[in-house]
Batch of 2 targets.
Target 1
Amino acid sequence: MSAREEILRRIERVESARGARRATGDGDVAAAYARIDRRYLRRHHGGAGDGGILDLFAARVADYRATVLRVRVSEVPGTLAERLAAGSGSYGVPSGLPAEWTSATRAALVRDPPVSSLDGLAGAVTGCAVAIAETGTIVLDHGADQGPRALSLVPDRHLIVVLAERVVADVPEALERLDPRRPLTFVSGPSATSDIELTRVEGVHGPRALEVLLVE
Amino acid sequence: MTGRAAREDGPGRGAMPTYLGTPSFPDAARRAVSDARLRGNLAHATTTIRARRAEAVAELDDWAELREAGRQIKDHVLEHLGHYLRLLEEKVTGAGGTVHWARDAAEADRIVADLVKATGETEVVKVKSMATQEIGLNEFLAEEGITAYETDLAELIVQLGDDRPSHLLVPAVHRNRADIRDIFLRAMEDVPAGLTDSPAELAEAARRHLRAKFLSAKVAVSGVNFAVADTGTLVVVESEGNGRMCLTLPETLISVMGIEKIVPSRRDLEVFLQLLPRSSTAERMNPYTSMWTGVHPGDGPRNFHLVLLDNGRTATLADDVGRQALRCIRCSACLNVCPVYRRAGGHAYGSPYPGPIGAILSPQMRGVGSEVDASLPFASSLCGACYEVCPVAIDIPEVLVRLRARVVEDGPRRPLERVAMAAAGWTLRSPTRLALAQRAASSARRVVARGGRIRRLPGPLGAWTETRDAPAPPSESFRAWWARTGGREEDGG
C-alpha cells in the first residue's frame, strides 16, 4: 500500500470510528464550510471612500520605520529622481513600470536586470498590486510594473510607488482583490527580525530600506 | 516508497527526535531552573513579548470573533481532512508541482534526501520549519552527505552554537545578545572583526554570512504555514527575507508540511493573516509573507515538491479531546505566557515542540511510552493562560488532563506514581477540589515545613521524598497568585 493510500485510510478509519457523518460529496463539505461563523469585521477603520484610509496607511507604514512620502501624480518623477540621487549605483526597474515615473531620474536604470546582477544594484523601483491600510502592508503580485520576485528582494533598497486607488482598508478586502494563481509577496516594512531577545531589529536579508511614494 | 523503517500498516504513531539523553521533564526542568542566566534571558524575552502581544490583540475589536472563526475553520478541515488533502494534491499537481506522501519521519527524510540527490547537489538552504525539525531532517541529510544551511537568524545561532532549539518562533530565545556575539565570534568563519553585541550588528553579520549562500543555492527546503486546498497555494510567513530568498532564488524547492496545515479556501487566509502575526511577534503584520502556487514560469523555482507528512497526526486525530492540538498554527503565544515554560525553558520538554503546546503535541504524536513523554502532561499548573492567548482556542489544560489519564493507564509502570497521579488528576479536574486541596496544603505547611522544604512526606508518599525534598506549599496558591497578579512579577534571575 502506498503512503498516500495508507494515510488516507488512517483518516477514514478515524472518521468512521468517530461515527462522524461522512461527507459523501463535495456538496456536503461545501455546506459545512458555509456554516463557519464569520462574525469578524471586514474592516476595522473607515467607510467606503474614506480619505482617512490613506492617512492610516501612511501612519502604519511609517510605524515599521519605512519612509513614506505623500505626493501628487505630477510630483512622482521629481520625487523619485531625488530619492534615487540620494544613493549611488544603478537601480533595477521592471519593464512595465510607467516610463513617466522615472522620466526625471538621472541615476542609471537597468530594465529587467538578470537575477545574477541584482546583488550589484543599489535598489529597485516597483509598483504594487494592493496595499492594506490597517496593517501598513504592500502586496506585490509581480505583474509587469513589479517584476519577478527576486528584483525587489536582493537589492538593499526597495522604492514602491503606491497609487491611492490600490489602497484598501483591511486584510479581507486585499485578499479579494488578489489572484491566488500569481506569486504574491506581502511586504510590511523593511526586513526585520525578532530573534534577538524577542525585540524587533530592522535589516536582515531582504531590503533594509523601504521607501514608499503614496500617490494621491 | 521503501523508506527506512516506513511501516506498511502502523497505528499512525509518529517519530521525532527525543533529544538524546533527555530526562523526564521534572529532572530537566530542575536543572534549567537552577540556571540563573537561562532564566534571566527567558524572563526578559517573554515578559517583553507578552506585553506587546496584549497590545497588538487589544487593537482589534473583533479578536474574539476572529479567534472563533479560526477555530471553526481548523476544526472543519480536521473533520474533512481526506477530502481537503485530495483537493490540495490535485491543485498543486495541476499547477506544476509534485506531491509526495510520508507516513512518518523516516519516510519524509528519505523522500527529501532522494529529491536533493536527484539534483546532483550536496548543499541545501533552509527556511525555519517546525516540520523539518520534527523529522530530524538536517541530521538525516548529514548522514546522506548533504549539508543543510539554516538561514533564519535564530536557527543559525542554534546551528552555529551546536545547540538545540528552545522556542517555536525564536529557537535561540535562551541566548542573549552577548551569548550570540560569542557564538558568532567562535563559529562564523567570516565574522566581522570587532563585532559588538548590538542587535543591528549581529543581524548585519548574519546578512553578510548568508548572502553568498542564497545567491548560489540550487535547492531550498522550507516548511509551510498554510496550504490553500482549493487553489493549491502555499504560504510562508516570515520576517527576515531569508524565506523569500529560499522560496525564490533556487531552482528546486522542497516544502514539507504536516497534513493539518490546510485551509479550505483563499478567503480563510483573511482570518489567519490577522491572528498569526499579532499572536507570535506582536506585529500588525510580519515583514514578509510569500504565496506561491506550483511553479510560476519565469519567476522562482522551476521544480516544486510538496511533502505531506503524517508522523502521528492521524493518531492525534483519533482522540476526540486531543485532536484540537492539530489546530495549532505555531504562533508560540502559549510559550510566552506559560509560568512553567518561563522558568524551565524549552529544552526541558525534550522535543522540537516546547511549552504548553509541546506538552500536548509530543505525547500524542509519539505516544506516552517514554519517560519524557509520560512526564510532559504534568509539566503544567493548569493555570489556563495558554488557552486564553491561543488564537485558535486550543484548550490546552483540557488536553493535558486527558493525557494525564492516558499516562496513568498506558505510561511507564510506576505503581506509586500512578496512584498519586490518579489522585492528582481527580483533584486537578475540578477547580473547587484543587482550591480545597491547596488551602489544606497551605495550612499543613505550618506544621511540617522546616526552612521552606518538607523533608519527609507522611505515609506512602515518603518514597517520593526519599530522593528529593518536596517544596513546602506556598502561603498563597499559584492559582490565587495568578488570579491576583496576572503573573506580573519581577523575576529575580
Target 2
Amino acid sequence: MFNKEMVFKKIINDPYQVVDEMVEGIVLAHGDLLKFANNNKRAVVRKDAPIKDKVGVLIGGGSGHEPAFLGYVGKGLADGAAIGNVFASPSPDPIVDATKEINGGKGVVYMYGNYAGDIMNFDMAAEMCQMEDIPVKTVLVTDDIASAPIENKSERRGVAGDFYVFKIAGAAADVGMELDEVCRLAEKANDMTISMGVALGPCSLPHTLEPSFVLEDNEMEIGLGIHGEAGVRKGNLQTADEITTELMEKILNEMNGSKKVSVLINGLGSTPLMELYIMYKKTHEILNKNQIEIHSSFVGEYVTSLEMNGASITIIKLDEELQPLLERETLCSMFRV
Amino acid sequence: MKKNLNTKEFLKILLEISNEIENSKDYLSKLDRAIGDGDHGVTMSIGWIAVKEKISLIEDNLTFDKICIQVASSFLSAVGASAGPLYATALMRGGAKLKDCSDINCSQLADFFDAAANGIQERGKANLYDKTMLDVWLPAAKRIKETSTQTEDIIETLNQGSIVAHESMLLTKDMLSKKGRSSKLGERSKGHIDPGAASSELIFRTFYATCKNL
C-alpha cells in the first residue's frame, strides 16, 4: 500500500513558487535576525551584516533541507545563506549578492556539501567576487560514509555533517580568527565528522509529486543520500537497535581511537522524534560500551530531505581545539546554543 | 539546401527547444530519479521558461553573441543546479565564436557547437565515457564539424549531429557513471540513460528539426 499507490500531499500554493514563498515566510517570521541581500530572495543574511573586521561565513545549497541552510544564519554561525530551487544548487547571483553583503573586510568562506552542481555555481560566484577584490575560500563538507571509502574522503557527499562543520567554522569566525585559520578549522571539523543514514520511505519534489525512490513495504535502504540518491544496500526493515548497530559499526570503524565525541541523530523529514530518541538510546549505549565520552548530543531535524522517512547518525570527534568552538554561543532563527 | 542561419531563425530554434523541454520534463525527471535526485526535468523546465520570457524581451538587431549572453544569463539565474553552469557556459562559449554576427554559415555554426562542447567539458571537468551530457556533446559537435567541411548545407550538417547525438545518448545507458551524484551508485548506475545526455540529445534533435522546417 505504501509505495504502489503512494500519494504525496503538500500544503503549497504553486510548486514553482514554493522556495520564494518559504523564504519570504522565514524572513517575515524572523525579521529581527534576518534580511535579504540586495533584495534577492535566494540570498538571506544576518540583519546586522556586514560585521566589520570579521570573516564572513556563507553557506548554501538546494532548498528542501530546512532548517539547512537559512535556519543556520545568525551570530556565531553563518553570516549568510544562498539557496537554490528544491534540491538544486543556487545560481551564482544570490551567492555573489550574499558575499558582498557579508564581507566585513576579512574575506568570505564558502561552505557547502560536496555536489558537482554546487561546486560549479559557487566557483563561478567566487571568481566574480575575486574580480571585485573580495577574498573567497571554499571548504566542502564530505561526511557521508556510504558515498565513498575513507581513502577517498574528499569524494564523499555532504549530509547532516554540514551542521557540525558550519558550527565550528561559524564559531571560529565569531571569535575573530583570520580567513586561513577559519578554513583550517572548518577542514579539520570536516575531517573529524562522519555520518551514515537509513531511509524507510521517499520524498517527492513539489513539481512532480513522484516518489524519489521506491522501496517495498517491508524494505529499508542503508546509506541513502539526502536527495534520495540510492544507498549501499536495500534490506528488510529491522528494529531500531539493529539499524543503529549497523550504522554505528561503520562509524566506529572510522573512529581511530578518538575518545570524545558529539552525536547528532538527524531526522530526514517525517521520522518522529520518538524514533530518533530510540536510536539515540542505542547510540549512547554503543558509545559507552566503547568507552567513548559523549560531550553533547543533538536529536531532531537538522538537515532534512523534504518529507523523507529516515534518519542519520553523525559523529564529530572532538579535541581541545574543536570543543570550545562547538560550545560557543550561537543565535540563529532555527538553532541556538 | 540551406546555407545561412540568421538571428531571427536562431531565436525560433531556441523557442522550439523551450517547448520541447516542457513536453519532455516528466521524462527527464524520471530518468534522473533512476540515478540522481530527480530534478533534471524540473530544472530544465524552469530554465527554458526563463529563456522563453527573455526571448520575448530581446530587441531586434541583436547579434548572435549578444543573444547567447542574454539567454545564458537568464538560464543560469533561474536554475543554478548542474545544468545551469553547464548549459550557460556552452551558450556563452558558442556565442563568443559568433561575435557581431547576425547571419552565419555552416562552418560558423560548426564552430559554435565545437566551442559549446569544449565549454561544457571545461566547466564540468568530465571526460568522455563518464556518463554525462559530454558523451552527447563531444561526438555530436565533432560530426557537425566534419560534415561542415564536406557540405555547406546547414540542414544536412545538423541532421548528422542529431543522428550522432541520438546514438551517443543511447550509449550512455551502459556506461558506469564517474561524475555527479550518480557516480556514487557504482555498478548500479548502469542500465539507465544519463538525463543530461537525454536533454542534450533533445537540443540537437530540436535544433535540426526546427531548422528543417524554417
